[in-house]
Amino acid sequence: MNKLIEIASNSNNIAVTSHVDPDGDSIGSILALGLALKQKYKNVEIFTADPLPARYDFLVESKYIKRYEDVKDKAFDLFFALDCGDENRLGKSIDVMKKSKTVVNIDHHISNTQFGDINIVNINSSSTCEMIFSIIKDIGLTIDQEIATCIYTGIVTDSGNFMYDNATDKTHLIAAELIRANIDKQKIMYNLYQKKSIKNLRFLGYCLTNMEIELDGHLAIFEITSTLLDKFDIPSADIEGIVNYGRDIDGVDISVTIREESDSKLKLSFRSKHDDVDVRKLAELFNGGGHKKASGATLNASLDEAKALIIENAKQFIRR
Amino acid sequence: MNKLIEIASNSNNIAVTSHVDPDGDSIGSILALGLALKQKYKNVEIFTADPLPARYDFLVESKYIKRYEDVKDKAFDLFFALDCGDENRLGKSIDVMKKSKTVVNIDHHISNTQFGDINIVNINSSSTCEMIFSIIKDIGLTIDQEIATCIYTGIVTDSGNFMYDNATDKTHLIAAELIRANIDKQKIMYNLYQKKSIKNLRFLGYCLTNMEIELDGHLAIFEITSTLLDKFDIPSADIEGIVNYGRDIDGVDISVTIREESDSKLKLSFRSKHDDVDVRKLAELFNGGGHKKASGATLNASLDEAKALIIENAKQFIRR
């Protein structure tokens, strides 16, 4: 960490960013690290390629996160890429990375390609936020209440509220420290999980009623057309959790949502609950990636073609 | 705790039990305390008034838990009542309690009536299991892997996976210790949350599609008739979680399930997500009880009468 402190101290400006389609861990980690760096260093820019989903508005400093367009003309001495398995996850922000002097890659994905000049990768961490907690302390900065709130948000969203096996004893010790940093846990939980729209739950009701079960009960499929999203009047960001309902069925090894994006591409999300059912490898067959138990890909195909392809390819991954 | 050690040492036999309708915290706590006591004391009986739901079969020692009928003729020197707000929660096991020399009441309900000879009540504890963790250590017994598994089960089921505000920094520190005691966390999570039946999810789909919203969006109601349970072919124990889906809607202050029991009684479950919306008080209007944010009651009425009564009585508790 001494090297990181040295580089930061010698940098005139610092960028902190993460992947496209921001989620709790990417937003939490860039905000936490960015706010911490601002305690000591000047010209720290926190930015994302895509806008943030509204559910993270309760992270009060999130309104100061800039967009790619605001910083694209700058060249940074130090560039932090957080929660990105590879540099393409940065989307258009990769341009900014390429102009930067030193790239620091901090991530917890097993597929990480070590694309930075400095790579801090811990595949046993629940979240990038969990790593950022330690890094902030190691470089002598302070976990204040706001930073603790960001880190807690990333940990709970990436660990399924400590449910996934990536939540270790260390994760819980950090959670205890974050609570002692006086976070308003109820506010975080309320904003993340208790502000669902009625439309959202009606949509979930529809999806569960129409969920398809294939491969003798080993594969659950949710087909989400754009017509359906229009009918229920919900944004596509709101359907994130649907795929987990299929995963949690007894006997189901793989759950998948096939979702029509506005640009006629299909977005696939895969989930597994077993160590020996690796949906990252399944996603890789569609040029996607992710974790062993949570992965994704995009696909140019019709819904029916996609479904047939998924069923065919899933066969080799399900349990016998 | 010295007094407890003294009494236990001087007891010829010890009973450990909990409330009717066993749940994760009651089963986890009686098993954990009972197994721990067996390390040092003889003639320890763990029993319940009602059979255990099958989802807790993974707690391997649970098969040795006896029923009320197996122990009803015994008189115990020491009787532990766990997770019971009052003695009536024991159901028929209250007979056994009344014959016992010393009753120890260990609980975390705010409504606890201090009905024991010794009362250990901590309303700030996430669960009775969390209390049992400390008590086992305080009386010099050992948290082994099996006991840790039971305690972890009680903590996660009573704290909504650390989501509720009853999960404090202390809860997380204990969770870290339990993980270090080598529990198989994935096995616990799989058995608690990832073995749902397809019927169960179709039923959830139906409930969400037919959920009623009253009082200008402040009250969510799920009506669950016995016909419906028959149609979806699911046991009434499987519908526990439905009420939470209503609670988690933006603007909803109170969520309630009205469920027809086989004996033509109605069972009411209430949930709140706000500190200032106290559904324990609402449940008390129906002679029920529980916690501020999770309570219940039974009612002899028709479904329509019950619904009208709930709407009328809920008015004074919702936010304006």
Per CATH, the superfamily of the largest domain in chain A is: inorganic pyrophosphatase (n-terminal core)
Largest sheet of chain A: 6 strands, parallel
- What is the H/E string of chain A? HEHEEHEHEEHHHHHEEHHEEHEEH
**Radius of gyration of chain A over alpha carbons?**
20 Å
Q: Name the shape of chain A in a single word.
A: globular
- Helicity range of the residues of chain A? 25-40%
Question: Please, could you describe this protein's structure?
Answer:
Chain A is built from 13 helices and twelve strands. Chain A is of the alpha/beta class and 320 residues long. Chain A has two domains: 2-193, Alpha-Beta Complex (inorganic pyrophosphatase (n-terminal core)); 199-314, Diaminopimelate Epimerase, Chain A, domain 1 (Roll), CATH 3.10.310. In chain A, a hairpin with a 5-residue loop joins strand 9 and strand 10. In chain A, helix 6 packs antiparallel against helix 7. The first copy, chain A, is globular. The model of chain A has no long low-confidence stretch (mean pLDDT 95).
Could you give a quick summary of the protein structure above?
With 320 residues, chain A is of the alpha/beta class. In chain A, 38% of the residues lie in helices and 18% in strands.
Distinctive features:
homodimer; 320 residues; alpha/beta; inorganic pyrophosphatase (n-terminal core); Diaminopimelate Epimerase, Chain A, domain 1; 2 domains; six-stranded parallel β-sheet; six-stranded mixed β-sheet; 13 helices; 12 strands; globular; DDH_dom (chains A, B); DHHA1_dom (chains A, B)
